[in-house]
Structures are given as structure tokens and as C-alpha cells.
Amino acid sequence: MYHKRIKQFPEDFLFGAATSAFQVEGAADIDGRGVAVHDLQPKKEGITDFSVASDHYHHYKEDIALMKELGLKAYRLSLSWVRIMPDGKNVNPKGIEFYDRLLQEVVDNDMEPIVTIYHFEYPQALVDAYGGWSSREAIEDFEKFAAVLFENFGDRVNYWLTINEQDHLLKIPSRLGFPEEIDGKEYLKLAEQVNYNMCVATARVIKLCHEVLPHAQIGPVINPMYGIPNSNKPEDVIATMEFNELSTFYITELHCRGRFSPIHWKYMEDRDVVPEIFEEDLELMKANKPDFLGMNYYLNQTVAASQQDAIAYHEKSVFIVEEPGVYTVTDNPNIVQTDWGWNICPEGMKLAIMDFYNRYQLPVLITENGLGAHDELKDEQVEDDYRIEYIHNHLAQIKDCIGLGYPVIGYCAWSFIDLVSGREGMDKRYGFIYVNRDNDDLKDMRRIKKKSFYWYQTIIEERGESL
Ligand code: BGP
């Protein structure tokens, strides 16, 4: 049961909200921005692309004023690699100038910028040059990009995030610039190499950050769909543990301990997809651990033992519903779902926070959490009580974790303002602020505060006392 263990959130708790560059900025062809992998994706029928998005590029001052009015203590944003280095390698001064103005505005308005170095927006030029993340060259280029950010913005940024949702990226070949039609086994091998390269790159950038910005803290962003057992059958409990290991901890074991999870190792061996590994990389990871774990949490899964007995290669899906021989994801009648079938389970967030801390003793920063919905604008208002309920229930779990002694340092709701959803365009909105456009009509891009805006404003003001 949930008990009120503390009255309020700690004074320095980072009440925040998040966006990512390609989903919010628009201005895709302006000021020398290069081509990112998603720019080349075929347009989906009836769904907007990312070229205009919420036009934050031109509205950033107005948007930051709204953040201030909301009372945000922190704003999580990502910096577009292709705006700053259009070919992935050489600096574009106009890109630096834009983020210089943007970050200064955030800081001048007394908010802590939390900066994601790489949030899905990968330079196509690096894929063309050497296959992107499948190559070790990608590690060097990621480090160079991070070095440019540290040099130009390190004086204003205390919290850095390395790669957003590496686990998620690995399940969508097109987000890495790879063809969708790639064969399952071939792709799984590639994905394991990409995963390994990204872990090495993360350790290199953590090391660099600690060297050049000793005041700053840095961590990865993981996306646990924390599994709970379908029943009290011991085989379902074991399958759940294996699910969590293969869907989440296989990455954090490398980040935080510089070793492969045994279950993950066996999984790769059985499928003949072990990547190329160098001992010095594992030493590097062991010596350069994150300062905290960034966690995006939207949903969890209910897991049972798989009744099949085959070896699976790759299902190109974000939610891998069956790993034959290991686990299968099941429906859970105790959990309601969003319109897109995502399980709403705030307790899953609490379980994930506690498990992560118990394993790694690292503070947790919630970098994304929120509800995507078909919001309706009626008489200049959006009555998004469903979003208020969702965020209320998740924040209450965080408050409870803190009350139990688990260090959660902040919460960034996804998203600050409506932006283009990863797969559903403008149909699926997440913001506290409505942007007046839809998939096929840009209208006037007017910003309209939703009911949840006023609710979150009060929560921040009273430091969550009513939760
Ligand atoms: C996370 C991403 C975000 C955002 C969010 C919501 O995986 O980090 O960029 O898109 O999910 O997902 P969607 O837009 O698909 O609903």
C-alpha cells in the first residue's frame, strides 16, 4: 500500500519537463542543418513528418517564458547533432549559435538545463561513410560531438545524458539508418555490435565529461518496461527475471559494471551473435561509471514462461512480445491501457527505481514519463484530466520511493509542449501546452495551456505536498 512517508519532495528536487530536438524544433532546412536518418524515412499516410514540428526553433523564447510560468526547475532538451555537425564531423557555427542562445535563455530564466547528447537524431553522413553505429568509427565521432558540446556549453550545463533509449534504438533498424528488410539473424548480430559500440562510446564520453567538466554529472537514459510475473508459478517468476535481464539490465550491466549479464551472454552465444569485444573496453567501462541513471518510464509488461522451444532472432518491434524458449508477454486484466495499448502501471516505475538502486547504488533521474492522448481543443481549452491522473499517480510513486530512502533526483514529464510523436505524428499528444496544428494543417501554431499545465504548476509550487 502507498503511505505518505514524506510531506513534500526535497527542496532541490528537479521538477522538470522534456522534449527532443527533432520532435519539437522543426526548421529542418534552416541555417545549414544536415540530414538525419529520420529525414529520409518514407512519409506515413496521414502522419506529419518532423520538418516543421512545433516550430520551437522560432518560438523558443515564447516557449521558455511558458516554462518559467509553469515553474519548471529543469528543462530536458536534446541538441541536434546535424544542426551542430551537419556531416557528423565538422562544426556548423550557426548550430552552435542557436543552442548558445537557447541554453542562455533557459539559464537566464533560472532553470537547470538537462542536455541529451544524442536523442535518435543520427547523421546520415556517418551511415553513408561507414555504416554508422555498426562500426567502431562511430565511437570516435560520438566522442568528438560530445567534446564540442562540452566545450561550448559546459559552463551552463550541470546534467548531461549520453544516449537516449539505446534499448529502443536497437529494436528499430531505421532509427539507426539500417534497412528494415534486413534478415533477422543478420540484424541481431548487428544490433549486438551496435549495443556494444554504444556502451563503449558512453564510457568514453563519461570519462571525457569527468575530465573536462568536473562540476557536471552524466548518465545514460534507459527505458525499462519493467516486467512483473503473470502468475505466482515459479516458472513465470523466472521468465520475468530473464525478461528484465534481456530487455533492460543487459545494457546497464555494461554501463555500470563493465561486464555482460550472464543471461545476455548465453543468449548471444546460443544465437551466434557475440560482438567483437576488446578487453580494454570493458576496463574502460568499469573505470568510468555513470553518476546517475536517466530513466524513461511509460509502461510495464506482464510476463509468463514461453511454451515454445525455438531460438528467435529479431522481431522488428519496440515491444518484443515473445522470446521463444524464454518468455512471453501476456495481457493483464488488472492493468488499464492507453489508446495505443501501453500498460499504465505506476507501481512498475517504483519497482524499477528500487531494483536499479539496489543493483547499482546510483541516483535515478526520471527523464521521461507521460501520457500520449488524442487531446481535443474546445473553446480554447483542453481538459486533459486523464493526463493529470497519470502524472499524479507516477509522481506519488516517486514520492514514496524518496520516502523509503531511494534517491530520485528529478522528474521530467514528457513532454513540456505538444510535439511530433515518434510514430503517430500529431495524433498522439503529450504536452502541458497544446500546439495549434495537426498532421496536415499547420494552422497558426498558437500555444494554449492545458488544464494539466495549471495542475503541474501547483504541484511544483507546493513541492508535491498533495500527492
Ligand atoms: C520515448 C522517446 C521519446 C518519445 C516517447 C513517446 O521512447 O524517447 O522521443 O517519442 O518515447 O513515444 P511516442 O512518441 O512513440 O508515443
Automatic annotation (TrEMBL):
Keywords: Glycosidase, Hydrolase
InterPro entries listed in its UniProt record: GH, GH_1_N_CS, Glyco_hydro_1, Glyco_hydro_1_AS
Stored SUPFAM superfamilies: (Trans)glycosidases
Signal peptide per UniProt: none
Pfam families listed in its UniProt record: Glyco_hydro_1
Catalytic residues (positions): E368 (nucleophile)
UniProt cross-references to Gene3D superfamilies, sorted A to Z: Glycosidases (3.20.20.80)
Family statement: Belongs to the glycosyl hydrolase 1 family.
Annotated PANTHER family: ARYL-PHOSPHO-BETA-D-GLUCOSIDASE BGLC, GLYCOSYL HYDROLASE
Name of protein: 6-phospho-beta-glucosidase
